Amino acid sequence: MRSFARVTLTVLAFTVAALALPLTLGAVTLATSFENRYTARTDGISPRPVPRAHDPAKPTAVVVVGNEGAVVSDALAPFEVLAASGAFNVYTVAPEARPVTLTGGLDLIPDLSFADLDRLLSSAAPDVVVVPALPDLGEPTTRPVTDWLNRQASRGSLLMSVCNGSGVLASAGLLDGRKATAHWIRIGGFEDEFPAVDWIRGTRYVDDGNILTTAGILSGIDGALRITERFAGIGTAREAAEAIGWTHYSPGSSPPMAQNTFEAADTVVGFNTAFRWDKPMLGVLLTTGIRELELAAVFDTYGQSLAVETTAVGLDGTPIQSRYGLTFAPRGTPMTNDLDRLIVPGAGAAASHAADRYSGFSPVYLHAGPGFPFDAVLEDLARTTDTATTRWTARTLEYRTGHLTLDGEVWPWTVTLRPFGLAILGLLAAFGIRAGYRRRRPSESGLDRVTSSTGRRGVVVPGKP
Q: Is 266 assigned a catalytic role?
């Protein structure tokens, strides 16, 4: 029995030794992977947005972002759709007038605070409110947003959530008794958390009167096109879809969509988050006139992959204005950041070779060719990481990849082997400790053999029995 217990304890000790390093380092890397997605700037810079003309004859649509940030495509994709339609005054709004960090470290300067919007509209409610996913869903910090949403709903605004923005609406009590949808990763959890909502799977959006909810990330484009139909007609919506290069427009109804579920290959995200501790840092060059979708494509694709990190840089470090007038503040220049690659999004930047002054970084002009802005970024991700990570990212974005050329390694084998290497190191350390302990035992064993019959250890005297 004592021998069995000794063997059991030995096996347990070696198991703990094998797991200690992978679990400890994996947990640290995992936490850092998610924290870095919304790291707020610390330089105290708070530039003012550039004012835009307001046309009182047009309906007003606003994209609301929280003080803690928002998912970049959830916010910028609907913004560009609504702005490209020409049918709306479109603004970004936030509880406070200060920079807000979107996914991947893109600092947006909101057009208006809630108070500014009240003054602009003479305390009338905006016609449309777009609600992206917020990183602090369920936390007290979302209270200013949920309270404000309740006020706008009671005053007649049409609310549209994107992705897990439906969780924001549900937490405000605005979806009780209604049909709604959400991102495929979170919808099961929302069913448990918000049972009063009738959650619908397998659709890109659910139009339920004065509230419209969409599925994951790029489904927000379909939702925004539906909003455009309702206010300006199918013709205007079709023109907006063509203007942004969206070929999946389905007039009058939600496009068909197979419901995603977790697959075995999705384990790649676990390896990327826990064991890719040497993620390359990509500087994303912000240039004046860049499309909002071109920015979203870079920051969200790389950000959702969890295989690389991004930071926004500028030609001279000063704020820039996007195609439809949003203000973004870079975090320095390529020279003031420790970068592994310099990524230059935007067809305009590619045409003008905007980053040639930084030729030492071998700038990558992602949008030099035709295509929807996300296409080139996904293909670059496949080339520089692997196709498993890229397919996971596309599924997270709710974007089809059948038309893309995804050339790259099939799987991140080096990253996958890291936890096993750490386990072997832990075992070797355990064997070393055990061997050292055994080397100290012989002297004690020899002393035990000369223990007297009375049970006391004594000294052996030559010639004495």
A: no
